[in-house]
Design goal:
TIM Barrel; 343 residues; alpha/beta; 45% helix; homodimer; 15 helices; seven-stranded parallel beta sheet
């Protein structure tokens, strides 16, 4: 058990743990060397590949935790969705949900079925990791996963899922419950395989107004967190909703141990909004990694300042690392944060 | 002088004024009938077209104000940018700023030069409008306009402008000052031509962290607002920064009379963040116009509730109306809001 887990569980630690969303990725030459030989889905679904690239940021950056290399959308495949990834276009679902009837064909797969490679990878990674490095599993939040299932891919204004949730409330609820049920077992099996903490990514929850977030996204994530807490005896959960910043108090209303913040929600503001009841994770703008060490040093110092007095702080970016990020700047951030000492 | 102006200037009015961002647009069959015959730029730059479509929502919806039909990017043309609009792709700038040297070729045009059609349209519209309907002029905020000038069009993560502002601070400042200077005179001439209030759109300011917003966007907008206040003897200004919600207190730090809010910033939260020092404008999610009257009625009631006790409230959407929005739902919103009475 390492610093990440200790901090997530509310213990005071000697320093702030750090990991980075999408820390295994295209910005790293070592990743690109593997990626050249395999498609993105083969990287996720051939577990030897997933293990190899998951370990890269541990070996190269010496971050405090490994996060399984995968994608929030792969569990849609055993649910019956035809998911493909295209270069420069991202994920495409070729049979998206277009009407209420389509929801009835969505399968809730048997536990483990179709996602064995995830659990195999987690077991193998946990064996390779030294004990002080923690292992993070993850899933998408049902709203974010459903947005792809309904939009058919990335979206500019989320009009299809919003129209669907407003006009087909029963079918929407059925779809969300199916995704939530799948996710409960998907995350539970990840814990059984070796994950010690999980993050639930609601990457697009912030496109909703507060009342819509509370009606159409939050309850389904809460169901998953409640299930995980009960079935694992309280293992830690990180809940990250990007952009839901003006109503972060509503996001905080769950059993999640850690709340993620993006760079537009200053940590001191987030602290006040949740009454300092949660450990916070974040929140450097990944675009700032394209600046230089002087600017980065200032930004890190500001985050350190804003994190003072928090119940706990896990350093991270506010979103995933981007493809052409200079590796030396990433190393500078990791080394700087690891040099901080809490007193 | 109508309800919009009175409310913006802090007077208590018998009812909440309403106008809608992009109220003249593709969702209206009357607009599409004109648009069939002209390109998007011809719609903006042939002032008879701009006048015709600007008047449509007044005649059809009976909203309380007209806003000039135009685009925030057209003033980039006399600055030397090669701006085109393509169907389904939006704006493209074929000679974007790629390095510090490119900034020196950016022209600050003589007052009026190259934008005469805007002032001609405003004069003609003011003559056509009945006295109780107010006329709104507008511009982009320098950060948002510069994002197109540097990215070359719409952007997903604003990486080019962020990299430019971090790594070329002097050239960035020079570019922003040129855009701000142009905008000062662009808005002043709009007032002279007949506009009674202006809105400055910082549509993408919310992609910045608080400290970056305060360094790279806010000061340039403040310069414009200060100039307008001084030169017009205090004519009203609406400042709308989309997404900068967790640091709305920082946005509020200017002489703007009215602050725009998007649907992820509840009006009661915004009120507290600016100590109720400003009239607020907003903030229905434009996607909710794709629902039905029952849902819309609930959402309108919630906004009315959240607006209680505000210094003043101008009803609007949280962003522009989308192309396929059902006109009957827009009418329902306008009629409902106009039926409210303040007591």
């Amino acid at each position: 058990m390492g610093l990440l887990l200790d901090t997530a569980l509310g213990k005071k630690c000697e320093r702030t743990p750090i990991w980075l969303m999408r820390q295994a990725g295209r910005y790293m030459p070592e990743y690109r060397a593997v990626r050249e030989k395999f498609s993105f889905l083969e990287m996720c679904m051939q577990y030897e590949n997933a293990v190899e690239v998951t370990m890269q940021p541990i070996d190269i950056l010496d971050v405090d935790a490994a996060i399984l290399f995968s994608d929030i959308l792969t569990p849609l495949i055993p649910m019956g969705f035809d998911l493909k990834f295209y270069e420069g276009r991202g994920p495409v679902i070729h049979n998206p949900i277009e009407n209420a009837e389509d929801v009835s064909r969505v399968v809730v797969p048997d536990v483990k079925k179709g996602s064995d490679y995830v659990y195999d990878a987690l077991s193998a990674i946990r064996k390779k990791l030294s004990p002080e490095k923690d292992l993070i599993g993850f899933s998408g939040a049902p709203f974010t996963v459903a947005s792809y299932a309904i939009e058919g891919g990335s979206s500019k204004n989320y009009l299809k899922i919003k129209t669907f949730m407003y006009t087909q409330p029963k079918a929407y609820d059925e779809l969300m419950n199916k995704i939530a049920e799948m996710t409960c077992y998907y995350l539970l099996e990840q814990f059984k395989a070796g994950a010690q903490i999980v993050q639930i990514f609601d990457s697009w929850g912030g496109v909703l107004s507060r009342e819509d977030y509370l009606k159409y996204s939050h309850p389904y994530t809460v169901k998953i967190i409640d299930f995980i807490k009960k079935e694992t005896g309280g293992k830690p959960v990180i809940h990250f909703v990007k952009g839901a910043n003006a109503y972060f108090d509503s996001v905080a209303d769950s059993q999640a141990d850690v709340l993620g913040t993006d760079w537009t929600l200053p940590l001191n503001v987030a602290k006040d909004l949740c009454n300092n009841s949660r450990v916070l994770q974040g929140n450097l703008d990944p675009a700032s990694l394209f600046s230089n060490k002087e600017i980065l040093a200032d930004k890190l110092e500001l985050i350190r300042e804003q994190a003072k007095g928090l119940k706990g702080h896990i350093f991270n970016l506010g979103h995933g690392i981007m493809p052409k990020t200079p590796v030396e700047n990433v190393k500078f951030v990791v080394d700087t944060v690891k040099s901080w000492r809490n007193n």
